[in-house]
């Protein structure tokens, strides 16, 4: 009754009911993989909600940061403890959800015309989410994240021509650690990056509503699915509840980022076996596999971290960011595609995706090469060379295998549609004889 | 009915969480109550959705995108003439250029100060500012040292190692003057991590971040891993009171390289 009254009150002033009815009656195709992006959205909402609380508990100064976060690890104060744990878990899950969602979009060809813009927005959000996560886990100024900041500074410093300028922007001063490093990280983490992410999410969803959803049903003229209200709305509410229940469960079972065990950052101390949050581990792995060679251009050094720390991620980003246009160039297919491909339907796209996944996994694994070598009783140098060789030839092998599997699967599906199964079902009739059962339409 | 049970769980969980937070119960109790609350919500919504038995094959036509008869492109006008178009673009570009200036000015000084604090005659001190005497370390042990008055300076940290002077002599290093003591910058030349580990058996310094190894007997030469050059060395001496002192600053720039580092 109160709801109805309010809706009417708003409608009488803003005329919202007609567009609202249109939105509520919208049809959404239903498939489990279409919920992946929603998980990302709910992780983001959790991050904003818990993050706002955390801003009141934090002190963005080099001296005050660690004690402020340390207070949140005190189990005698469960509110701060749980909020920080849920926040950090939500951050690592947020990046994972975006990545899996992008994988779904990639392998089903959902990025094709007219959805190239939303692919680029989505991919930008992956990069921004990783960067936001990095600025966030650097805020406690503990030993683990402080070492990561120092490495990042060396990557900023490695840029040709503008290295010192970039490092001084990063540090907020002309030396490391700069006096305003934490003020900068804090502003980026709680203001610029989340606001940009929020705006991009709004744009992403507006475009989705304008373009309508893709689907697996082979009916390009219509969207086939469920009505938003109340059917789809209840489903997405269930996803929301499941997301938060999952985060609370993780916070209950596993303590993430125990900064009280790492200790405060001191520039001259480092611990063995340090690895960053999972989504930046591929960069750490790349730094470990990178060559030691320093080339000089007109007498200026190009530090070795430049290649794995800047060039490699930049190449990967540009290729994936522009993928809709690259694929268009290769296939000369610029038609509108509202109907999705099964992942195995386009073997070479499957091959490219598998190769990228392989490289990501390999570099992530390389970030733990010291522990791996220790556990497997290998010489570290042997392992590094094995990883380097795998980095170069692995994608070709994995791509070829994925291509072969996808093509095999596609030809089987084609065969079964061209020659429907000869098997028939016999049903015994009342006279004791057998009748052929009517085949079910596929 | 099932929906009501699940929503009951949500209410119990949320009230439980409130109580747990209020009395300061262990965090696991609080987050456990939240699990219950949100799981109840998820199950209630899911059960309600299934209970609708709504059709999943409703159809909504897809309207074509792009200009149609209903929404044609705006008519040509004076402002869309090519010459105007170029002027608009030019104005926009000029603004963008003007906007770059404040952006660049954000970096106060594009310079870089690396303060090591090491000078000729400066004593070596440990983390607690205690000067290091010549009998401080036994053969094969290490210590993190700073210049006196510069404890905690990020770029100053050095690792002091005592090795058998005979080994240094064989390797052709002049460290014997300080009784087998050698000191190197602790900041890795690769990515600035502290080179914190020492393998006594092979006389190697080892960086825990990216596994670069440095040969202590040969001037901390980079022998493995991604570091591009040796760790800068600090020449040592012993003063009249028996304390270790520096003979000057490091013999090379500290930390990772950059474009403007003098070759």
Briefly summarize what is shown.
The complex is a heterodimer of chains A (442) and B (263). By secondary structure, chain A is mainly alpha-helical. Chain A has helices spanning 2-14, 17-24, 36-55, 65-71, 78-107, 116-138, 143-157, 163-171, 181-211, 228-253, 259-262, 281-289, 306-321, 323-331, 347-366, 369-376, 380-418; strands at residues 27-28, 222-227, 295-297, 300-302, 426-428, 434-436.
Describe the structure.
The complex is a heterodimer of chains A (442) and B (263). Chain A is mostly helical and 442 residues long. Chain A has a domain of 253 residues: Cytochrome Bc1 Complex, Chain C (Up-down Bundle). Chain A contains 17 helices and 6 strands. In chain A, the strands form 3 sheets. Chain A has a two-stranded antiparallel ribbon. Chain A has a two-stranded antiparallel ribbon with strand order 3-4. In chain A, helix 5 packs across helix 10 and helix 6 runs antiparallel to helix 9. Chain B has 263 residues and is of the alpha+beta class. Among the domains of chain B are: 49 residues; 123 residues, Rieske Iron-sulfur Protein, CATH 2.102.10.10. Chain B has 4 helices and 12 strands; from the N terminus they run H-H-E-H-E-E-E-H-E-E-E-E-E-E-E-E. In chain B, the strands form 3 sheets. In chain B, strands 2-3-4-5-10 form a 5-stranded antiparallel β-sheet, with no helix packed on it. In chain B, a hairpin with a 5-residue loop joins strand 8 and strand 9. In chain B, helix 1 runs antiparallel to helix 2. Chain B is flat, with a radius of gyration of 34 Å. The mean pLDDT of chain B is 89. Chains A and B meet through helix 5, helix 7, helix 8, strand 2 and helix 10 of A and helix 2 and strand 1 of B.
Number of helices of chain B: 4
Q: What is the top-level CATH class of the domain at 25-277 in chain A?
A: Mainly Alpha
Note the main sheet of chain A.
Answer: 2 strands, antiparallel
Number of strands of chain A: 6
Q: How helix-rich are the residues of chain B, as a percent range?
A: 25-40%
Q: End-to-end span of chain A in angstroms?
A: 47 Å
The CATH topology of the domain at 124-246 in chain B is what? Rieske Iron-sulfur Protein
Apparent shape of chain A = globular
Classify the fold: give the CATH topology of the domain at 25-277 in chain A: Cytochrome Bc1 Complex, Chain C
Shape of chain B: flat
Number of helices of chain A: 17
Low-pLDDT parts of chain B are none
Helix content of chain A: 55-70%
Q: List the quaternary state of the chains.
A: heterodimer
Question: Largest interface, and how many residues on either side?
Answer: A-B, 96 and 82 residues
- How would you state the average pLDDT of chain A, rounded? 93
String of helices and strands of chain A: HHEHHHHHHHEHHHEEHHHHHEE
CATH architecture of the domain at 25-277 in chain A: Up-down Bundle
């Amino acid at each position: 009754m109160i709801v109805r009254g309010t809706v009417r009150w708003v409608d009488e002033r803003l005329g919202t009911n007609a567009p609202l009815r249109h939105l509520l009656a919208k049809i959404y195709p239903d498939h489990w993989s279409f919920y992946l992006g929603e998980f990302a959205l709910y992780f983001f909402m959790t991050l904003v909600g818990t993050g706002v609380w955390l801003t009141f508990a934090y002190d963005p100064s080099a001296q005050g940061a660690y004690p402020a976060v340390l207070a949140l690890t005190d189990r005698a104060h469960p509110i701060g403890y749980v909020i920080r744990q849920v926040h950090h878990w939500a951050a690592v899950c947020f990046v994972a959800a975006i990545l899996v969602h992008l994988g779904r979009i990639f392998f089903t060809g959902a990025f094709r015309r007219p959805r190239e813009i939303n692919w680029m927005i989505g991919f930008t959000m992956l990069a921004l989410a990783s960067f936001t996560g990095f600025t966030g886990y650097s805020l406690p100024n503990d030993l683990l994240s402080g070492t990561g900041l120092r490495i990042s500074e060396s990557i900023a410093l490695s840029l040709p021509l503008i290295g010192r300028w970039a490092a001084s922007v990063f540090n907020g001063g002309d030396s490391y650690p700069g006096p305003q490093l934490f003020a900068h990280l804090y502003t980026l983490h709680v203001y610029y990056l989340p606001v940009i992410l929020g705006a991009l999410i709004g744009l992403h969803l507006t475009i989705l509503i304008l373009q309508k959803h893709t689907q697996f049903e082979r009916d390009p003229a219509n969207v086939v699915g469920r009505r938003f209200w109340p059917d789809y709305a209840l489903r997405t509410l269930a996803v929301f509840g499941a997301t938060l229940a999952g985060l609370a469960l993780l916070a209950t079972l596993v303590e993430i980022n125990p900064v009280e065990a790492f200790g405060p950052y001191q520039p001259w101390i480092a611990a063995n076996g340090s690895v960053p949050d999972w989504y930046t581990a591929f960069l750490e792995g790349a730094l470990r596999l990178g060559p030691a060679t320093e080339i000089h251009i007109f007498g200026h050094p190009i530090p070795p971290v430049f290649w794995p720390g800047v060039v490699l991620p930049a190449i990967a980003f540009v290729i994936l960011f522009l993928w809709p246009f690259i694929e268009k160039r290769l296939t000369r297919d610029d038609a509108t595609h509202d109907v999705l491909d099964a992942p195995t339907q386009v073997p070479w796209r499957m091959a490219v995706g598998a190769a990228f996944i392989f490289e990501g996994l390999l570099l992530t694994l390389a970030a733990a090469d010291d522990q791996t070598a220790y556990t497997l009783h290998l010489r570290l140098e042997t392992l590094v060379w094995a990883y380097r060789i795998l980095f170069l030839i692995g994608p070709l092998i994995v791509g070829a295998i994925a291509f072969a599997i996808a093509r095999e699967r596609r030809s089987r599906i084609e065969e079964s549609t061209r020659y429907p199964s000869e098997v028939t079902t016999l049903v015994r009739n009342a006279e004791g004889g057998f009748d052929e059962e009517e085949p079910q339409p596929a | 009915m099932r929906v009501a049970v699940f929503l009951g769980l949500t209410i119990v969980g949320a009230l439980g969480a409130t109580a747990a937070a209020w009395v300061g119960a262990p965090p696991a109790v609080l987050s456990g109550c939240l699990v219950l609350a949100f799981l109840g919500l998820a199950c209630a919504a899911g059960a309600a959705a299934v209970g609708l038995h709504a059709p999943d094959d409703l159809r909504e036509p897809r309207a074509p995108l792009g200009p149609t008869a209903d929404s044609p492109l705006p008519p040509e006008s004076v402002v869309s003439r090519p010459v105007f178009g170029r002027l608009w673009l030019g104005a926009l570009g000029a603004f963008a250029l003007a906007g770059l200036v404040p952006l660049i000015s954000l970096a106060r000084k594009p310079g870089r100060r690396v303060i090591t604090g090491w000078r000729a005659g400066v004593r070596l001190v440990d983390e607690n500012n205690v000067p290091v005497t010549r009998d401080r370390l036994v053969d094969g042990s290490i210590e993190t040292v700073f210049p006196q008055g510069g404890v905690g300076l990020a770029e100053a940290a050095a690792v002091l190692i005592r090795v058998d002077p005979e080994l240094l002599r064989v390797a052709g290093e002049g460290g014997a003057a300080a009784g087998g003591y050698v000191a190197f910058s602790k900041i890795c030349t690769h990515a600035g991590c502290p080179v914190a580990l020492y393998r006594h058996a092979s006389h190697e310094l080892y960086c825990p971040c990216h596994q670069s190894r440095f040969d202590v007997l040969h001037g901390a030469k980079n022998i493995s891993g991604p570091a591009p050059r040796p760790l800068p060395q600090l020449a040592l001496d012993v003063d009249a009171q028996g304390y270790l002192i520096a003979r000057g600053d490091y013999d090379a720039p500290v930390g990772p390289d950059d474009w403007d580092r003098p070759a």
